[in-house]
Structures are given as C-alpha cells and as structure tokens.
Design brief:
Elements lengths: L1 H14 L17 H7 L5 H9 L4 H4 L5 E6 L16 H15 L2 E6 L5 H11 L5 E4 L6 H12 L4 E3 H21 L8 E4 L3 H12 L7 E5 L2 E2 L23 H5 L4 E4 L8 H5 L6 E4 L9 H7 L4 E4 L14 H10 L7 H15 L5 H6 L20 H16 L10 H11 L5 H12 L2 E5 L5 H13 L2 E6 L2 H10 L8 E3 L7 H14 L7 H7 L3 H11 L4 E4 L5 H11 L10 E8 L2 E6 L9 H17 L6 E4 L10 H16 L5 E5 L1 H5 L1 H7 L12 E3 L3 H13 L5 E7 L5 E3 L6 H24 L6
Length: 767
C-alpha cells in the first residue's frame, strides 16, 4: 500500500501543472520592442563582438558564470542501474532543482544517448563553452573514471562526478568528527571498505589524503577482499590491494575501527559489528537498505557511531551537503577546476559547522528539539541555511590558494552578503536590523510564554544579542517547558506577574491605567484586576518605561490585543487608527504592504491614516516610499464602491499631504509595472517611479495578498509590523514561526531605539 502511494504521489508530483521540475526564466526586461532589440537583434551583436575579442568576457555578458550542466548517459541511475539516458532525465532535473534551491545555480540537464566513453567525452567537450561548470551524473564505473579524468585534463572549467566525490566529501566530514568523539587519530585507524565502485574508490582516496594509511585499509568487491594474491584486479582496484592473507568481510572487520559500506543490504551482521574495536565508526550507505539496519546496529552495541544514506535516521551521508556549495564557490572565482584542495576544504568546513550551535529553524525542519554535536549529529543537516555561507567561501579560498581561481575574491564580507542575498537568506534589511539592534539592545517583554514558539524566540533573540528578554509567567512552568524542550534560560529575566511580590507593581500600574481611562468608565478595582492579565501587565511595563518594547499575539486574538494596546499605550497624536505592515522581499525588490492585520473595513479617514503610517514606516526602514493606493479599477474608471472611496482618499492625501509620493486608485499590475502604468496613465504622480508600497482598500485584500505570496514560495516576509501606537508594542499573527518572531523582535528593538531618540530630541514619527 505504501509503495503504491509513493508511486502515485511521485508521478503526480512530476506531472501535475507544468510537467517536470525546472524551467528557464528571463532575467532581463522583455516587455517592450526596445527590450527585445537589446536582447536579440541588433543589440545582441555588441556582447558577441566583445566575447570574440576576449572569451573571458562571456562571464560578464552571459549566464555562463552561473550555469552548470548536469550531464548523464543513464548507465548508473540511482539504484535503478542502466535505464538509459531518457529514463534518467527526472533524476537530472532533480539535481538541477537542488543546485538552484540550495546555491542559486542555474542548470541545464543534458541526457546524452551514448555509452561509448570516447564519443561521450567528445559530446561534452563540444558543448562545454555554454557552461561555467559540469556535473557528471549517474555514469557507471569504470567508464566514469576515464570520462572525468579526460574532461578535467582537456577543459578549463570546474568538473566533478558527484557520485564519486560527493559521498567521499560528506563521509570524510563524518569520519573526522567521529574520530574526534572517539579520541582516535585517522593515521592510526583500521578501515574496511565494502564495495569497490566509483564512490568507494573516491572515498578511500580522500581518506588517504586526510591522513589514513593505505596499509591500514582493506577493500572488498563482490568477490571478497581485494588482496595481492588475486589475479582478476583492474587498474582501479590494484592500488587498494592488501597484503593480508584474508578473503572475507568477517575476517577483514575484526578489530577494525571503521566500516564503510557502499555495497548491498544486510551484509554486515551483529557479530561482525561486535568484533570491531571500541567506539566503532560504521557508515552503512547502501540505499534504500543499508548493510545493517539502524535498529539492529544500535542493539548490537551502545558505543557505535552510525551513519546511513537515509534521511529517516541520524547522520545522513547526503551529497546535497556538498555539490551545490562546491560549485558555488568554484563558479564565483571562475575556477579552472575542482581540485583536491577544494574538496578537502569542503570536508573541514562541514566538520567545523557541525560543532556550532544549530539554528532553531534547522531543529524545526527536522522535528528535533535540539541538535547538538554528538554521536547522532556528526554531519550537518541538508536544510541548514549556513551551508552556503560556510562551504562556498571555503571552496573559493582553496581555489585561490591552489592557483585555479581566475577571478579572486578580495572582499570576503561583501561575498558573504552576496551569498545571503542570493538565497534570500537574512536579506539586507533583516541583516541591517540585527546589526542595529546589537548596537543598543533593549528590554523586550515576551508576554505569551505559554506558547513554545515565543519561548524559543526569546532564547534565540538573546543568543543573537539583539535584546534583553523579559518573560511573563510562572517561573516553574517556564523552567519545566524550557527543560523539556532544551531551551536555555540563562541570562533571561522572568517576571511572575501574578506573584505576591509583584503586588506593588500591579497596584502602581492599575493607578496609572485607571487615571488614563477614568473618563472611559474604568475604575481602579477594574484596572487592578486587569493587571493579572499578561497583555495588560506587559503593556504597562512598556508604558511606564520598565521595558522598552513588547511582543505578543501568537496566542491571543489580535482584535482583543489591539483593544488593550489602544487602552494602555494609545494611538499616536494626530491619528485615529493604527495599522499593520508586512515587508516582502520579492524578485522585483522589497515591497511594503498595508494594512495587513487590524482594519477590517477602513473608511476614508482610516485609509488616510494607514497611508500616512505606511509612508513613515517605509522611511523608518530606510526606503523612499512610493505609494500606490490599490483597488480593482484605475484612476476613476469605476465611480462606486471601493474605487470611489480610494479615489477620495487619494484626493485628500494630495491636498493635505502633498509631500507624500502617492497615487491611485489603481490595480496591482499597474502599480508594479512602471512601463505599463506610464504608458496608459502618463499623468500619474508616480510617473518614472518604481512603486514599493501598496495600501489595500480593506483587510481581506491586504491579508490575502501577503499570505498568497507566502504560500506560493516567498519566504522572506517580515511582519506584521505595528504602525501607529505611541510605543513599541507589536502584535503578531497567530502561530507565527520562531524565525518570524525573532525578526519582529529586531524590529521592536529598532522601534524602541527610534522612540527613545524621538523623545530625547522632541521629534515626530508622522509627517
């Protein structure tokens, strides 16, 4: 049943919608005739002539520098064998997808219907000018060795046969870390390699390069131990022939320190495992079933350090940890090759990364409470966002030091930023927020510590150095939850608002609130009762200066929390409404969307306030606001309903706030397509300007817009950012992720810093 479901799901995944997994997307404007004349004839002749004069300029004028060919003849596809070039195409597309999502590298998958190595080599050589690098894939041994070696010697671009070197690099990382844990040295250990194919050959060579002694290595093929007494060995196996008089795996593995399996399932028995040295390192990498099952291996002995090729067990030896980032680093320095130095650099970079604290996003991705360097974590997880910024620079440096880099990197900080921006990870805005917050961290109240995400976010924010968290709640309950989920509370303040020791503060807060609301029907007794509620107490901490900012909303209803905020904090002078904004990092640049949370059916006055707040908030984030008031018609085309209301808002804004760069009403496509808008409506105040701020006519459209973007793959979204309260209290969406909460903490801290400056220098937030 399970197999049938996998079959159906896999076929549906590949066929539904647009068939396949990759596509080509233009990177230059192409909407006008001029665009097309530059993209093709006659404009395209100019870069052609430049490349003719200097072939190296192809990296400047074409996609060559970010384009890799994934090339196969389909003779050794995954565990399927020789199924042919065409049948292997889904695998090659999948490889292309991994290159793109993990390292931002574009790929053409090329399936070559040719098994003759010589002819295959000629085909690859003939098409090589197209590419900045070549990834050989799923080519059977021994032909894969000859193909790779010839291409490396005859071409001047990075070439790698990932089936060989990927497994070698990742397993070598695991080996180094396993040796550190077991207190052993690589030059002393005895290694058994079961399998003699391409991957086994490459693994063994890399282990030797790292310090393993050839005389301590025993390799086996399907006929048994590869030893000097055998007469059937080819040139690939002879270098690994042992002089020991042994012939079976059982003999070879006795007293061994490491077993590397690249063979078939169930060849390693518990007795064999028990015959190994103390703290044995066992990498059983046969797929889908390893040489010994994880469960059986764990039962056999408790000092084992175990890895497989499977994702459902600890320590997966996964090639995706290597090849995208190796090629990224190689391409970025325009390397002429991927050499041993670059591979070794990858090994050490991965090994060191494993020892660092693991981001919560990684723990969440694998449903693990807390990954820590240890027997079940000797290799980074494939979804660790730090892989790109760790491995690619290590590879680039190794390329430069070994003399194969044609374009050396001189500014490593800039390169780090480029890598982050490339993947949308920690984009410039978020990075800037974090850097600013670290300069002047503030006391931030986390009101809803009954929600695990809030507790995790507090831990992460403190570790990042962006704030001094104040947790509201019962100390014992918080400590128990923290212990259960391996959350560190060291250095974090906890305020038990309901404890007797806080009675004085509760009464003090109640007096202030009752005084503020005395003309709104609130008595002191009512105010005192409210101080037992987290949101009231936390907001009073901010109101009185006991804290600088507050984060809430992941558990509470935003409407209720908003009402409390208006009671306690109040709306900014000159305004009658608050709003919320989401910041979205898109391919068109950063967009600011409002109001995404608070005003369900805003009237004219509300929309005016939202536009003013949006203008101020965009400036807050160091952007020049260009605002489009959104509706379903353009510039008075519809005179009733929402368009008419928005039209009136725009007229008022132009009259009362001429300094705002705003226009509308307009449809979203006209807002975001400058050429279309300027051609159709040349009178617009936004002529020649790129809109970066969208103010929607109601909550349904605004909330739907940002959630649509999120669910269709736009992951870099910050918000909801509160706009309009007198002090930094930010009310989040229910079930906001840990990552998003931390981003909002950074926003709250900057908000508090700005608020402090405003009060000190008697400035204003709203123009």
């Amino acid at each position: 049943m399970a197999n049938n479901k996998l079959h159906d799901d896999a076929l549906a995944y590949h066929s539904q919608g647009r068939p396949g997994k990759i596509e080509v997307i233009p990177t230059k404007p192409h909407s006008s005739q001029r665009d097309l004349s530059l993209a093709y004839s006659p404009g395209v002749a100019e870069p052609c002539l430049e490349i003719e004069k200097d072939p190296q300029t192809a990296y400047d004028y074409t996609s060559k520098g970010n384009l890799v060919a994934v090339i196969s003849n389909g003779t050794a596809v995954l565990g399927l064998g020789d199924i042919g070039a065409m049948a292997g195409k889904p695998v090659m597309e999948g490889k292309g997808l991994l290159f793109k999502i993990f390292a931002g590298i574009d790929v053409f998958d090329i399936e070559v219907n040719e098994k003759d190595p010589e002819k295959f080599i000629e085909v690859v050589k003939a098409i090589s000018p197209t590419f900045g690098g070549i990834n050989l894939e799923d080519i059977k041994a021994p032909e894969c060795f000859e193909i790779e070696e010839r291409l490396k010697s005859e071409l001047d671009i990075p070439i790698m046969h990932d089936d060989q070197h990927g497994t070698a690099i990742i397993s070598a990382c695991g080996l180094l870390n396993a040796l550190e844990m077991s207190g052993k040295k690589i030059e002393d250990i005895r290694i058994v390699v079961n399998g003699a194919g391409a991957a086994a050959n490459s693994c063994t060579q890399l282990y030797i390069a790292l310090g393993a002694k050839p005389e301590n290595i025993v390799m086996l093929d399907s006929k048994g131990v590869i030893n000097t007494s055998r007469t059937d060995l080819n040139d690939r196996k002879k270098p690994f022939a042992t002089t020991r008089n042994i012939s079976t795996l059982e003999e070879a593995i006795k007293d061994a320190d490491m077993f590397l399996g690249l063979s078939v399932a169930d060849v390693l028995t518990p007795d064999m495992l028990r015959s190994m040295n103390s703290n044995p390192i066992v990498f059983a990498l046969a797929n889908p079933n390893p040489e010994i099952s994880y469960e059986l291996a764990m039962e056999s002995r408790n000092d084992i350090i175990f890895a497989t090729g499977r994702s459902d067990y600890p320590n997966q030896i996964n090639n995706v940890l290597g090849f995208p980032y190796i090629f990224r680093g190689a391409l970025d320095v325009q390397a002429t090759a991927i050499n041993e130095e670059m591979k070794v650099a990858t090994v050490y970079a991965l090994a060191e990364l494993t020892k660092k604290a693991v981001p919560d996003v990684v723990n969440a991705a694998y449903s693990i409470k807390k990954l820590r360097f240890g027997r079940e974590y000797i290799i980074p997880k494939p979804l660790d966002p730090r892989l790109l910024t760790t491995v690619a620079p290590a590879v680039a440096k190794a390329a430069m030091e070994s003399g194969v880099a044609r374009k050396p990197i001189t500014d490593w900080e800039e390169y780090d930023h480029k890598l982050r921006d490339l993947m949308g990870l920690d984009n410039k805005m978020i990075r800037r927020l974090f850097e600013m917050a670290r300069q002047n961290p503030k006391r931030v109240v986390f009101s809803e510590t009954n929600h695990l995400n809030m507790l995790k976010a507090a831990e992460m924010a403190y570790a990042e150095g962006i704030c001094m968290p104040v947790l509201l709640g019962n100390e014992e309950k918080i400590a128990n939850v923290a212990k259960e989920n391996q959350i560190s509370l060291e250095g974090i303040e906890i305020v038990n608002l309901r404890h007797d020791r806080e009675e004085g503060r509760r009464l003090h807060y109640a007096e202030i609130l009752a005084q503020k609301r005395k003309r709104r029907g609130m008595t002191f007794d009512e105010a005192a009762e409210k101080m037992f509620e987290r949101n009231y107490f936390g907001m009073m901490m901010v109101e009185t200066g006991d804290a600088d900012a507050m984060i809430t909303g992941v558990f509470s209803k935003y409407a209720d929390t908003t009402d409390i905020a208006k009671e306690v904090i109040g709306v900014r002078d000159g305004l009658n409404h608050i709003g919320a904004m989401h910041i979205v990092n898109t391919k068109k640049g950063v967009l600011f969307l409002a109001d995404t949370l608070f005003n369900r059916h805003p009237d004219t006055d509300a929309l005016i306030d939202i536009a003013r707040l949006a203008n101020a908030t965009v400036k807050f984030f160091a952007h020049d606001p260009v605002i489009a008031m959104i509706s379903y018609s353009n510039f008075g085309a519809d005179s009733i309903g929402s368009p008419a209301s928005v039209h009136k808002v725009v007229d008022t804004l132009h009259e009362k706030y001429p300094e705002l760069v705003v226009d509308g009403e307009m449809q979203v496509n006209y807002a975001l397509n400058k050429e279309l808008r300027d051609k159709k409506y040349p009178f617009s105040c936004l002529r020649d300007k790129e809109v970066n701020t969208l103010v929607f006519p109601n909550l349904s459209s605004a909330n739907s817009a940002y959630k649509l973007l999120r669910e269709t793959g736009t992951n870099d979204i910050i918000g909801p950012i509160q706009m309009g309260l007198k002090k930094p209290v930010h009310i989040l969406d229910v079930e906001t992720s840990v990552r998003d909460i931390v981003h909002m903490v950074a926003v709250a801290v900057i908000d508090a810093i700005v608020e402090e400056n405003i009060l000190t220098n008697r400035l204003t937030r709203i123009e």
